[in-house]
Amino acid sequence: MSARIDLNADLGEGFGPWRMGDDAALLDIVTSANVACGFHAGDPDIMVETAAVAKARGVAIGAHPGFHDLRGFGRLRIQESPQRIERDIAYQIGALQACAALAGARVTHVKAHGALANLSNEDDAVADALARAVAGVDRDLVLMVMPGLPAERAGERAGLRLMREVYADRGYSGDGTLMPRSMPGAVIHDAGGAADRVVRMVSEGAVFTADNRRIPVAIDTVCVHGDNPAALTMARAVRTELEAAGFILKPFAEP
What is the tally of helices (H) and strands (E) in the chain? Predict the structure, then answer.
């Protein structure tokens, strides 16, 4: 069991005057922030502001690219060629790198969002496009992936450093992927129960599925979704229980 663990959230997911979640409060709890890059959410003002607050609080800043789908919040599966997916991801990483630079910060990692992330865990061609984009922009960037799935294998093929992630507030299907949000139990709202499950996953190095399977995996970071109405309560509970279990919370990719 590792004594060190990262806690991440997907942040900066507003647009213009509209804001989602309490990013400032979450940045007091998490150790890594995955910042929307303008395709599924986010804009230059939000990206610069989020990067500035993250830097001030010692939180690692990651790019959170998704499909070009503002209306659907990046959850619409868009059929694109691997080449276009690769270029769109690279474009979004570059946008956040520029905005972070304006805040005197730098981007340390990349995590795909929504439908893009789901496809990268099902389709080798999409997974390879993601890994190529990250490697093509900067090989020092860490790729955050779900363990045991195509995105992890693509990152390994590309020679990237990987950060393997489990979810505090999502249920798992029998194959180790996330349950579709439309299914009962796919989104977990009980903060205490979620925190207990996280400690068990991290301590045992395994995810537990809806059909009662135990899948051994490597775990470097735990995600709490910032768009969940109970995100703050969930994040506090997860951090409190991890620390009580003896874990030290630090960014996996140091800012």
Answer: 8, 10
Closest CA to 71 of 41, 33, 114, 107: 41
pLDDT value for 1: 45
Tokens representing 134 are 């990250």
Superfamily of domain 4-163+218-226: Glycoside hydrolase/deacetylase (3.20.20.370)
Q: Which residues in 125-182 belong to E strands, given as ranges?
A: 142-145, 162-167
* Closest of 106, 77, 85 to residue 94, by C-alpha: 106
Q: Residues 6 or more apart from 179 whose CB is under 8 A from it?
A: 170, 171, 172, 173, 185, 186, 210
Q: Calculate the alpha carbon distances from 133 to 85, 114, 125, 158, 174 in Å.
A: 8, 17, 12, 10, 29
> How high is the pLDDT of residue 124?
98
Q: Which residues of the chain form beta strands (DSSP E)?
A: 4-11, 32-36, 60-64, 107-110, 142-145, 162-167, 206-208, 214-216, 221-223, 248-249
- Do residues 198 and 239 touch, judged by C-beta distance below 8 A? no
Delimit the domains of the chain by residue range.
4-163+218-226
**Whether pTM exceeds 0.90:** yes
- Model pLDDT for residues 166-175, shown as the tens digit of each residue: 999 999 999 9
Is residue 13 predicted with pLDDT exceeding 80?
yes
Sign of CA dihedral 131, 132, 137, 138: positive
Tally the residues of the chain.
255
- pLDDT the model gives residue 238: 97
- Contact at 8 Å (CB) between 173 and 149? no
Tens-digit pLDDT profile for residues 93-107: 999 999 999 999 999
